[in-house]
Each structure stands twice: as structure tokens, then as C-alpha cells.
Amino acid sequence: MGLTNKIIDLHLKLKQYNVQFFFLFFFWVAGFTYFSAVEPTHEVLSNILIAFGIRSPNSSTDFASFYNLIWPILIEVVFFGFITGELLEKYNPTVTCSIIARYKRKHAVVIGYDHLGERIVDYCIENKRKYVVMEDDQELVEDLINAGEPVVVGSPVETNNLKFASVKRATEVFICLSDVRIVLICSEKIRQMNPYCKIYARCFEEHVQEYLKEPRINAFPFSTSKWTLEELESWDKDQHGTAIVLGTDNLSQRVANKISAEEDREVYFFNVEHQGIKFKENKRLHIINMMGNFVSEINSVVKLKDVTQIFICWRKESEFDDSLYLTSKINMLFPEIKLYVRIFDDELSDIMERYNATTFSSSSYAFKKLQSEVDSDSAIFPHLEEKENEKE
Predict the structure, then answer these.
(1) Which contacts (CB < 8 Å, 24+ apart) does range 181-190 have?
(2) Please, what are the domains in the chain?
(3) β-pairing verdict for 307-312 and 285-288
(4) Helix, strand, coil % (nearest 5) of the chain?
(5) Which residue from 4, 95, 170, 363 could staple onto 115, CB 3.0 to 4.6 Å apart?
(6) What is the pTM (predicted TM-score) of this model?
(7) Residue 170: what pLDDT?
């Protein structure tokens, strides 16, 4: 725990004991005043020592006897009780981190610690940029809390949580959540609290994006799936035949819709959470209410010998085992099929490349795109060296 965290933790513990310490101080002042009035000597130092119980009073009045009885008890209960019960007790890291966040100034606020939010935070930490992260799920930010980073645990739609994140004094806010309701409420409250900060809001629906662009909110809405699709379009150029898309989120829908819109293409979209597609359906797009994590399961729907491309767009970390298994099996049985696999960690790309699979990360593409859209004073604005590396 750093020095700042220790000071904040001590401050919080003292606040919990403020009534007890006030009573202890008041009792001491009463004793000092009494002994100053009744003791033969009027030396201030002598009366202070008597009030602290270090010296015995010359008078033997009832109050003096009562004071000498009660004062040691109060010292033991309040002072030593505070030391043993509070200072020796482990500090509350969650509360401490929220206090640290509250005192941030001219910083970036990251709302939502998903893959994109994690990349933004990692960049800020690596480049020593000021930030605060807000996340409703404490497990996701446990490592940041243990490291003493500025974290606010709680719902971003709660005004108090936004205050703890010091949104009023922030220069920019990145809303990395996919829940439209929360994005809208959050954007409204942030703009009310801070009329000047930049707001970058993740949003899929175009009509909601138009709403966020209105002068009253003046946010910069973006869709990670749309940005990622722009990167993937080059892989689908001049391709023919049947394609398979596996996934449940907006990106998988975009990929399936994009390929099915091309002539002489058939797309089988395996979506186990199928509740309809957000794009206009066509006859070349076949939505299958199955996960498709086994070769036999896919082959029962579409003959893999007729397939030219497979896009595995599963986004959960727990689904990586299924991605790895399916990729290895298809590469072994149907090596002519081009595989495109979504990953959440750049280090996993080496594993997938063993099976001739092309990997992609929607959060990585979105982060790079976001860097190109922010102002030069942004916490994630790339260094000159990074720009030169991208050109190379």
C-alpha cells in the first residue's frame, strides 16, 4: 500500500472514531480547566501533566478522584482501542481506492472494464496518464483494487458513483458498456455534471448514435463491431462459396450480414442465443440456433467440404477452449478452409497460428481507432513513436 493510500486509510479510520475522540478531548479539557482553577500552583505545564494523569493532583476532591478513575479507562477504551481495533486491522482497499478516485483532477474516466476498457486502463498505467475506472462487477477490477489504483465499484447510473469518479473535473469519459440504457443515462448525467468534457460512448444502434451526437449531449458515439468489420472487409475481398459465422454478439451479426449481401455467397450463422438479427435478413443468410462448437454439429447442417471461410467470433474468455478445439479439428480435417478466429489476448495469436488461423481482436482494433479520434491532450493519444511504428 502506497503512502497516499495509508494516509487516506488513516483518515477514514479517524472519521469512524471522531465521536469517541471528541468525547475524550472534551473530558480532558474539563479536567485541565478544573485543575487549573483549584490547584495551588498555576503552572500550565503542571496542570497539563495532571490532566493527562502523569502527575497526581494536590487536591483530593470528589471530582479529582472521579477524574483519576475515569481518565485511564477512557484512554484504554478509546485510544488503545483505536490502535488495536482499527490500525492493526487490514484496511478496506475498495473504499480507499474510491477516495483516491474522488480526488483526481484533469483525468480520464473509463466506465466499464471489458476488453476495451481494460486496454484503455493498461495504456494509462503504462504511460502514467491520470485515470479513474468505474465497474459494477468488483471481481473484474480486483487486481486494480489490490494495486491501489483509482477504482469506483458500483453502477455508473448512480450519481454518487459518478461524483466519486470525479466526473465533474474530468477532461474525458470513455463509456465502454454495451447496454444502451446505461449508456444513455450515463451520458445525460455526465453532461449535466460536466458541460465541457469529451464523451466517447460505445453504441451499436445508429439512431441512438444520432441522439448522442445532439448538441445537448455532444458525445462521440462509436461502434466497436463496425470498426472491426472495416478491418475484416479486406479478408473477405474476392472470396466465393459458403461461409460460416459463429457467435452471438453484434460483430458476428455484422460479419454474417456483410458476407450474405454479396452475390454467389451463402452464410450459415450459428447463434445459440438467436433472437433475430438486427439487420435486414435475406435468403442467403441462414440463422442456425446452435452453438456449432463441434465439427459433427456443423457438418449436420452444412457440408464443410463446400465451405471456404469460417469466422469464429465468440467473445467470452471461457469460450476460448471451444475456439481452440474447433480450429485444430477443422485445420486437420479441412485444411483448405480459411479460418478467422477472434481472440481477447494478443498472446493467444501464436497458438492459433499453429493451425493456419488468422486472428483478430475487436477491442484491439477499436482501441487503435479510438486513439485516432481523440484530441491530442487525451490520456490515450498515441506517442510519436507509436505513430511511426504504425506507418512502418
Answers:
(1) 182/155, 182/156, 182/157, 183/208, 183/212, 184/208, 184/211, 184/212, 185/157, 186/111, 186/156, 186/157, 186/162, 187/212, 187/217, 187/219, 188/217, 189/157, 189/159, 189/162, 190/162
(2) 3-87 (no CATH), 93-222 (3.40.50.720), 229-360 (3.40.50.720)
(3) unpaired
(4) 55, 15, 35
(5) 363
(6) 0.75
(7) 97
